[in-house]
């Protein structure tokens, strides 16, 4: 239940039970990885979506975690076995050499599991000036939005921005949160979340890939939005594509073990004229998709910040 972090401290290990949804990105000149973690293994929790549902989330949560006083935030999130997003520092040289135990350095949690299950978390590569201070800026998607600013307005799992002066401050009251995007379109009825780290477009603009889920049968759709930085404030959406641009449609992309079609992009890089994206298909297979980058941006810019065709 403990691990030594990159600062040499023995700390609680939020990644003790599982590691899911890795996203790799630069912050400055350093590589980092975010992962969605739980204190204890959740088992095949996706079976809760089938009919009849099968619940395995608490199957491996030990009885001793419920003993004693429960005010400790780590104990609270461990008892719920909720997702906490954890930050690792990536040593690429050691990874290339196959020194896997030393390639990933534990930094700490970026979200507060006792407040909400939270994933789809990654940082912008550059600090932004917000409220008079140069701060790190993070995208995240809390399952329970009510504790966050604008949560009553959003009502459903939504994309949030968070600003903090240090990594450790993100999982604390020191972080400031701002609602970025909540479900607007039919294919987003259940939730929206960012899919992979933002891509700089120049002129203080950023491409953000994001996903929406309608329901168990309809599944997940991938689309895009463009953000623009603001003077001394959080970035805002200036274009949001309201159309379903990517979704499971080929036979091999369809699920086998659970009913939800799920095409989920997990990374994107610009090479030459193309944006090349990796994606998961129903959590069982992996695919690669590519699109002419300039044409994609031109199309996204035909929609305003609310997804209305200009």
Describe the structure in your own words.
The structure is a single chain. The chain is mostly beta strands and 310 residues long. 11% of the residues lie in helices and 44% in strands. It has six helices and 19 strands. It has helices at 73-80, 92-96, 100-103, 151-154, 167-170, 293-300; strands at residues 2-4, 10-12, 18-27, 30-38, 84-90, 104-109, 118-123, 128-130, 133-142, 159-164, 176-181, 191-202, 205-213, 220-230, 233-240, 246-247, 263-271, 274-281, 285-292. Strands 7, 8, 9, 10 and 11 form a five-stranded antiparallel sheet that branches. The model has no long low-confidence stretch (mean pLDDT 96).
Can you count the helices?
A: 6
Major sheet characteristics: 5 strands, antiparallel
Kindly state the mean pLDDT as a whole number? 96
Spans of 5+ residues with little confidence (pLDDT < 50)?
none
Structural class: mainly beta
Number-wise, the strands total 19
Q: Outline, from the CA principal axes?
A: globular
Q: Helix fraction?
A: 10-25%
H/E element order: EEEEHEHHEEEEHEHEEEEEEEEEH
Relative strand content: 35-45%
Distance between the termini: 53 Å
Radius of gyration: 19 Å
Could you list some keywords that capture this structure?
mainly beta; single chain; five-stranded antiparallel β-sheet
Q: Strands, helices and their partners?
A:
Layout: E1 2-4, E2 10-12, E3 18-27, E4 30-38, H1 73-80, E5 84-90, H2 92-96, H3 100-103, E6 104-109, E7 118-123, E8 128-130, E9 133-142, H4 151-154, E10 159-164, H5 167-170, E11 176-181, E12 191-202, E13 205-213, E14 220-230, E15 233-240, E16 246-247, E17 263-271, E18 274-281, E19 285-292, H6 293-300
